[in-house]
Amino acid sequence: MRKRLTMRLGTAGIGALVAVLAIAASPAYGMTRPADPAPPAGLSGLEPTGADMPTVGGNLGNQHYSGLTQITRENLDELAPTWRTHLSAVAPASANVGQQTTPIVVEGVIYVDTPSGGVIAVDGVTGDAIWKWDKPAYGTSTTRRGVSAGDGKIFTLAGGNRVVALDQATGAEVWAVQPTGANGEDLGRVGKVATVYYDGVVYAHAADGDRGAVVALDASDGHYLWHFFGGPKRGQLFTGLDGVTFDASATWGPVQADGTDCAEEGGATSWMHGAVDTELGTYIMTFGNARSCTSSQNASGRPGDNLFSDTMVAVDARTGAFKWHYQSIHHDVWDMDNVHPPTLADITVDGEERKVAFYGSKSGHQFVIDRTNGKPVLPVTEQPVITDSRQHNAATQPMPETRLLPDCVEWEKLSADNIPGNPWRGVPNYNGYQADADGNLVFNPDSYVSVDEPFLTYPAGSSGHREGCLYDPQFEAPILSTTSQNGGGDWSNNSYSQSTNLVYFPYGTNPVAHYDGAAANGLRAIGQYQTGGILAYDASTGEVAWRNHLGTDMSHGQGPLTTASDLLFVGQIDGRVLAMDAATGDVLWEFQTGSGISGAPVTYEVDGEQYVAVIAAGSTNPYGGSVTQGDSLWSFKLGGDYTTESGSQEGPATAPLTIRRPVGGAAVEGSTVGNTVLLARSSRTADDAASRDSVSQNGMQPTHLRVPVGTTVTFRNPGAETFPNFPNTKAHCATQFFEGEFNVKLQPGETYQHTFDRAGEYFFNDCTDPRPTGKIEVYLVPQDQPGALKFTPGTLQLGSETGLFTGVDGKVSAHFELPAGYTYDSGAVLITPLSSTPIVASKVTANKNRVIVRFDADDVDNNVPAGEAALTLRINVLNPAGVQEQLSSTATVPVVK
Q: How does pLDDT run across 548-560, given as a tens digit for each residue?
């Protein structure tokens, strides 16, 4: 039997208490420190978590593994929501949505960042708020990734680069500090990364700025203990456990003529929290890519390996003294840092017990590193790679013997029969891969990439050109490669199951073109599919055990949680929580929360009942504004009986995600521009040198053209007849991908016309330089057919006989009467009152006069309210002339739940 924290303060009382204490912005040195640090209940090193989950990593080894077993594969159909709390609605209320955080649980109370960047304590059984800390005088840090607990406090981050301690029972502010080094050093921008507590010490990581440190503070009053920079100070020497002393700053090249030191100007930052090896007394942290002199993608001014960028570093947890390091990428020019939280475990390799750290994310590699010395446990080789002399690329890169994700993009044939194709397919024209007459993408050595050839050196056995592989070099010309700064594992946590001995690795697929000056550390190729999934690999061998490419990006906070009953829980950016078989990867259970998920689930136990909780607040990675954001904290248990306002347990389906990387610029109706696209122009009207032969991403004008089905669009390479002063001077292409509808090369003044006879999105780019990309959106205007729609039976019996959402079963059937001579073509969907995402039919039967459409009731239930509901059926048809049209009809039907 667990005793839960039950202290409550009224909202007004909390606000007054926090307001009084929020001014404490400096160390409270006069406070008395407890005789001994007091860890939160359930804090463990590598032991599975039990009733509580007191760190964002589950345990201090970031295993995200629970020993709880009440929820099993056999009773998953009984798992249902027991409460939902809208965090922003709790006073002090706000309208904020969106957050990337993972909750923690201590003594049955959930502590989590709010969408506004505050902190809230929520009763894990009832969902009632216990206290909320928000809006201090110095402001909050809005993007947050987790809090920590210890010594009766909750540790968070706030505005002005502050680390803050709150009273665990009341939310009252105990101390707030702006950390600086022992000699007044600026430690960087502390404001995002989850804090970590262990043995009276709070660890905070600086990110976002050019240079940032990991800093350790005394938990009693926040005073400075030590710090460690990813970019070392000039001349700083490090001596590891092996007795070897080295000057890390020497790996950044010499100080530049103007006095700039690349290591100290930018260096590397630590984007995610670290792990504590309690047995060895070590704090293990990861640092990101080199970000300085002149940009992350131009390394001409920083020759060398650039330590400690792209490096896992182990230090003494109490003193910060250096122990060892392992660099996963030398001299990074791709923003390919491996920065997810390191995961620690004790495993057996070749019959020997080894203490390891699993390391690697964006690269799609997983390095299994010995925690006692920083050496690889599983084989790693230094493999030769292509180099560019202007970039000072390293001649070799460390490659694990086993690979989790593909090394290279796939240059697949352009064809309507090949949609969407391989998840790692490359956009045509990048890297000189251009479509031949049959749509095959074939390397053209005379394409734009030829400008780099004098500077490139190829290793023996190479194809002699850049194929879009990991670590392909670039300089000024865009070179597409995988896995990218937005792919691989990025910053989602892993999970290690002590039951299966598998490591669970969520990933995204998002190839990126790199070149000097590219925004956001690389151009995610416009028009490509941004997808992802999760895989599991054997911790002892590195071999992939299973892979489930679920279809949405899972590299941006969609961290997995595994349990001793061999279940894996994970959230999706489309709002779904999944329960999967941890041994096989099969999806066994799913629940729609109604808003995107960008953090890991947690599980806990109170009074003998196991709960699973997740915050569904949404984020923007990598789908931008198409992600449905929210403020909901959900909790589930066996037999949970919570229902939403619609009478269903689930939330409505989230808005459609923009899976394909979108073009820039607003949509332009074709009729307003003569249904004409100008190739390789950055402006539709400017007759100047800056606009001609554009290589910018918006170098198709307009970038987004909307036309109805049946429209003929003209593609023009504008010459002197259009721009008499500054016409285009080069040939330019309109290569449509990935269907391969057209691929034309036009000289200045030439045009090409194409008639679009089917609805869809048609992306195209230029073979002269692949960056200019446009899209033709071809749409159908729904034609209302009053009275054509009928549901059978006339009353929809939704809801569940069991009272749980898992018991919703059956079909919803609709009949749509067709006009004479019309035939069904495609796209039968149901438009519902509660969601902007159409429900796709599970079965369509079409005859001469009628279309019979069936939908799964469990897809409909959470998107339709009880009572009278207006439902619209929309279908694509062919008219008597064989031209595609769209028909719709609406019926109002009684809904019973």
A: 999 999 999 999 9
Q: Which amino acid is at 133?
A: W
Beta pairing partners, 202: 197, 217
SS3 of 508, please? strand
The answer to whether the beta carbons of residues 251 and 325 sit under 8 Å apart is no
CA 700 to chain centre: 29
Cβ distance 877 to 824 under 8 Å?
Answer: yes
- CA proximity to 164, closest of 268, 303, 18: 18
Q: What is the pTM of this model?
A: 0.94
Q: What is the DSSP-derived secondary structure letter of residue 493?
A: P
Q: What sign does the CA torsion over 482, 487, 491, 493 have?
A: negative
pLDDT category at 485 given cuts 50, 70, 90 is confident
Rounded to the nearest 10 degrees, how much is the dihedral formed by the CA atoms of 591, 593, 597, 600? -60
Mean pLDDT value across residues 552-576: 97
Residue among 721, 563, 557 nearest 629 (CA) = 557
- Return the CA Rg of the chain: 29
Tell me whether the omega of the peptide bond preceding residue 708 falls within 30 degrees of 0, making it cis: no
Alpha helices in 181-275 (DSSP H): 262-265
Q: What is the C-alpha separation between 69 and 565, in angstroms, rounded?
A: 5
Supply 714's token pair: 């003209």
Ramachandran assignment for 223, one of left (phi > 0), alpha (psi -120 to 50 degrees), beta (any other) = beta
- As a whole number of angstroms, the distance between CA 208 and CA 221 comes to 26
CB 510 within 8 A of CB 524: yes
List pLDDT tens digits, range 356-388.
999 999 999 999 999 999 999 999 999 999 999
Look over the chain and give the mean of its residue pLDDT values, rounded to a whole number.
94
Contact 320, 284 (CB under 8 A): no
